[in-house]
Amino acid sequence: MSSKSYKSLSDDIWKNRVDKINSEVFTLTYGSIVAQLCRDFTYAEVNTQLEKMGYNIGLRLVEEFFAKTGLGRCTSFKDTSEVISKIGFKMFLNITPTVTNWSGDGKQFSLILDDNPLTDFVELPEDNNAANELWYSNVLCGVLRGCLEMVQLDCDVYFVSDVLRGDPITEMRLKLNKFLKDEVPAGEE
Amino acid sequence: MSSKIYFVSLISKDNRPLYIQHFFPYESLDNSIDRQIDEETGVESENPVDKKKSVSEDDETSTVQDYLAKQEGIENDLSLLDGKSSSNELLKYNFLSHMALDIFESPFYDSEENTNKNLLFIQDGIAVYGYATSTGFKVVLGSSAKENISDVLYPLFRQIHRTYIKLISNPFYQQYQLEDKTGNKNGGLDEGGIDNLKFSESIKRIVTDWNSS
């Protein structure tokens, strides 16, 4: 499928086939989750917890994704990146991050998010090094890792920079480690 | 119509001051009041820094010393202070805000958001307008307008309110002191004021834009 048809598919899905939630409810809910985690854990642990939460979301979200889009397997990792940015993010967050910074072997790329609905109105606390340690939207990394694992792609997903921390852009990096072979469960034939 | 806003103050629902900012050097027409205040500041400014900075719950009876001590802190931050402004003006605006609080609580104040009923009183040539929400958040503005400009001010009140909403929507901003895990009481209000630089800049920008139009 071409890039243009991805866009029209995702616009169509967003307009017609997706239930919407008020953005402030969503933002404030996620914000209160992060704020509460920050009260209970150190910032490094918060990042881990957010990633774990995202992972569990991603495992389930990917089924929803395939149900709504009806897409088949991607032909290449490049194709995967297009689907993630143009359809996946569009469907669930109504944003379209840009795919850039491909590595030479085609196994790593970056997603640049120019606006992030999770971080509306958010300012990181100025004390305690939040700006150096906390990745506020780390749940997104977990979601992507979970979704990709369900399609047999073992990836590392991590933030490289974040506007909340004072960086100029918000950038996530995806690195493909390996393809997961379908393992036959023990005891079956 | 060239009415200017002299000051903005924001007050929380239990009548604690959140933020006060002044904008325009007030040309005093009534010298007698200023002289009186001069005497007070002359006397009290001997030792302002030692006084406790926190403002008590019952604001109606807090002392002049508290105001001055607070002004010391606020004055260091205000970038709009030029040589003409003085702690007298801040004191005056503080008094006016406190007078406004009494009116908010009086039975004559209609707390529906009528656009033409915001004028609270006029004192010393400053017309004081107030805006209160049902959560108890109050905005007090003092302006130089000679006639009632309540409806013109209404969008300004709304903008200030929206800026405040953006501030409190931050999940890390704690409006009421909560204990964090080390038992310290931390948060946005430890001395009864909003510290946030971005918020301060937005309010300044909103009012200076309004003043210059």
Feature tags:
heterodimer, A: 189 residues, alpha+beta, Muramoyl-pentapeptide Carboxypeptidase, domain 2, 6 helices, 4 strands, 50% helix, globular, B: 213 residues, Beta-Lactamase, five-stranded antiparallel sheet, two-stranded antiparallel ribbon, 16% strand
Describe this structure in words.
The complex is a heterodimer of chains A (189) and B (213). Chain A is an alpha+beta fold. Chain A has a single domain, classed as 2-Layer Sandwich (Muramoyl-pentapeptide Carboxypeptidase, domain 2). Chain A is built from 6 helices and 4 strands; from the N terminus they run H-H-H-H-E-E-H-H-E-E. A 4-stranded antiparallel beta sheet of chain A has the order 1-2-4-3. Chain A is globular and about 45 Å long. The N and C termini of chain A lie far apart (36 Å). Chain B is α+β, with helices and mostly antiparallel strands. Chain B has a single domain, classed as 2-Layer Sandwich (Beta-Lactamase), CATH 3.30.450.70. Chain B has helices at residues 31-44, 64-77, 87-105, 150-168, 197-212, and strands at residues 5-11, 17-22, 119-123, 126-132, 138-143, 178-179, 185-186. In chain B, the strands form 2 sheets. In chain B, strands 2-1-5-4-3 form a 5-stranded antiparallel beta sheet, with helices on both faces. In chain B, strands 6-7 form a two-stranded antiparallel sheet. In chain B, a hairpin with a 5-residue loop joins strand 6 (178-179) and strand 7 (185-186). In chain B, helix 2 (64-77) packs across helix 3 (87-105) and helix 4 (150-168) packs antiparallel against helix 5. Chain B is globular, with a radius of gyration of 17 Å. Chain A binds chain B through residues 24, 27-28, 31-32, 34-35, 38-40, 120-125, 127, 130, and chain B through 166-167, 169-173, 180-181, 186, 196, 198.
What is the straight-line distance between the termini of chain B?
10 Å
Q: What name does CATH use for the topology of chain A?
A: Muramoyl-pentapeptide Carboxypeptidase, domain 2
What do the pLDDT scores of chain A average to? 91
User: Order of strands across the widest beta sheet of chain A?
Assistant: 1-2-4-3
Strand content of chain A: 5-15%
Number of strands of chain B: 7
Which two protein chains have the largest interface (Cβ within 8 Å of the partner's Cβ), and how many residues from each? A-B, 18 and 12 residues
Largest sheet entry of chain B: 5 strands, antiparallel
- Rounded to an integer in angstroms, the radius of gyration calculated over CA atoms of chain A is 17 Å
Radius of gyration of chain B: 17 Å
The number of distinct structural domains of chain A comes to 1
Overall, the morphology of chain A is globular
Terminus-to-terminus distance of chain A: 36 Å
Number of strands of chain A: 4
Main sheet record of chain A? 4 strands, antiparallel
CATH superfamily membership of chain A: Trafficking protein particle complex subunit 3
Q: In percent terms, what proportion of residues of chain B is strand?
A: 15-25%
Fraction of residues in helix of chain B? 25-40%
Helical proportion of chain A, percent range = 40-55%
Low-confidence stretches of chain B: 27-62, 71-84, 178-190
Protein name (chain B): Trafficking protein particle complex subunit
Organism (chain B): Pachysolen tannophilus NRRL Y-2460
Region (Disordered) (chain B): 40-62
GO biological process, one term (chain B): endoplasmic reticulum to Golgi vesicle-mediated transport
